[in-house]
Amino acid sequence: MSESPSTGVTRVCGNCQQVYGYKEKHVCPKGGAAEVPADPLIGATLGGRYLIESFLSSGGMGVVYRAKHSVLDKPLAIKLLREAQDPMMQQRFLLEAKSACHIGHENIVDITDFGVLDDGRPYLVMEFLQGQSLESVIAKGALPPLRSCRIAEQIARGLHAVHEKGIVHRDLKPGNIFILERGRKDFVKILDFGIAKVMAGTRESLSGGANLPNLRATATGTVLGTPEYLSPEQGAGEAFDARVDQYALGCIMYEMLTGQVPFRGNGPMSTLMKHLTEKPVPPRKRRADLNIPESLEKIVLKAMAQQKENRYASMDELANVLQELIDSGTLPPDPAMMRPSSSLQTVATSPSPGTPSAQPELSPLTSGDMFAPTLQAAIPSKADIAKEKARLKENPSGIEPKPHLATERVPPIVLSKRSSLPVVLLGVAGVMVLLLVAVLAVKLGGGSKSHATEAADLGAGKSVMPSLGEPAAPKEQKISFENQSTGKVTLLCGSKKNCILDVGKSCELVLPEDTKCEASATGFRSQSVDVADAIRGAGKGKAVLIPIQLDADKPAGKAGKVKKTKAKSKKR
User: Fold this and answer.
1) Which of 153, 145, 147, 397 shows the shortest CA–CA distance to 294?
2) Which of 173, 392, 368 is nearest to 277 (CA)?
């Protein structure tokens, strides 16, 4: 296949109508030098036909813009890679665009054009969507069974069309599914074929017979995808087929019905291992408070079968089963569907003055990272999988851990306690000195006035003497801890105070000033925190915020040596 021709990007001067390169500094003969915007692409035109109007979103690999066709005046979305790519990667990118645009199904996002800028950066031109992601919908709470079925049936129909073209999505998740109102409520669009795998025959036909490597080929010994929706065969590095998308859809249906993903560990690899070694808690058991029909639960669990042979034969079969359940009339009615028609032709009542109206998400490309998988990690070994399965057999109760507890074993942490013995001994010595001084004063001084004074002094001394049995308790203060690490952190303070912090989250504890805490996370070195030091550092009267930032752990041997060295330094 020949190298893709580069696309020119130009700007037009509003005064003299002169066309010039979008990075060039233009001096207008009628009005002086034109201002160059912070983002030179905004206001520029790609290939003489796509006018970039505004920035929409960005991510680690891509930037997304709202645009319009300069002739047809049609709104579009353009996704552009941040960095230039070599000719081979450009061809893979083009193959990816072709794989999506050749599907031609109403539930698949429509890709209308592809190109490469003159600086080597590829871009895609896609239909502009107005609505919200399924991820945003689920974030508001579990969906009614009938609504979940209608959405899942459309996803299955769209993916069946994808599979018929010899393409596997491989990264299906709620964030890649867009919910629109297009003549009816909950119209589904499937997006982001960023790590799609094109089967050999289809790849050859799309590439014109060129001998190209697999699209988004995975490095040997690694897995790509999103852990919460990754099939067991993908996680184990085994050969897979289109049924990996069915497993992901089963996980999405589970999440729609319960508001929770079927598996979530203490990190990406922990979540992946759960898909390999555990069975999901049935939705009706996970959310007994919801009216989830048993017939729908069976469909979800069959789609999520750990062995792909036990799933439905195809997405078409799954879609037909869901449609039969919808038509049966046995599902409880969806309250939202019982309201007046919510189609685009019906305009809702205007909000009262001063009430902000909800702004829908715009464009299917909210992540900006269509081409970046959520997880790229080493495939767990068979020995690790067998070890985890053996551990689960020892505790087959199936009782789900409480949400606030860590899902992985955390080694016990022994916190050093400040001994109260030195304080007690110091108090005893002080009392003895005061008594000795008082006795000497009585014997040497004499006189009634002196005795009265000494008695008063001795009484005053007694009033401030610390009790031998009850040493004064240290003051308590509210302390805030913030997890600035890249993993979930377990924090232990004393014998009773503890909390578990997700990434970027905080918690508050009321602690004595002499408390020492220990922060730990799987795969990271633990961190000791002295509350007294933090209070002194914050200053008198100021709120105390302690950041927790754990370093990645070193191999076990080296880590042990470091810990021993630290322990010796403390004794000195």
Assistant:
1) 145
2) 392
Helices (H), 110-242: 134-139, 145-164, 200-206, 232-235
Per-residue pLDDT tens over the stretch 93-152 = 676 667 667 788 999 988 888 888 888 888 889 889 888 999 999 999 999 999 999 999
Determine which one of 171, 186, 245, 334 is catalytic: 171
The two structure tokens encoding residue 85: 């790519």
**Alpha-carbon distances of 444 from 85, 430, 438, 439, 450, rounded to whole Å:** 98, 22, 10, 9, 10
Q: In the 3-class helix/strand/coil scheme, how is 479-539 assigned residue by residue?
A: EEEEECCCCCEEEEECCCEEEEECCCCEEEEEEECCCEEEEECCCECCEEEEHHHHHHHHC
> Residue 131 gets which letter from DSSP?
E
Alpha carbons within 13 A on the beta-carbon side of 362? 14
Q: Does residue 516 contact residue 416 with C-beta atoms inside 8 Å?
A: yes
Bridging pattern class, strands 476-483 and 375-378: unpaired
Q: Which one, of 311, 317, 235, lies nearest residue 277 by Cα?
A: 235
Picking from 344, 181, 154, 160, the residue whose alpha carbon sits closest to that of residue 256 is 154
Distance, in Å, from the CA atom of 302 to the CA atom of 296, rounded to the nearest integer, reads 10
Q: Is 171 a catalytic residue?
A: yes
Query: How many other β-carbons are positioned within 10 Å of the β-carbon of residue 284?
Result: 16
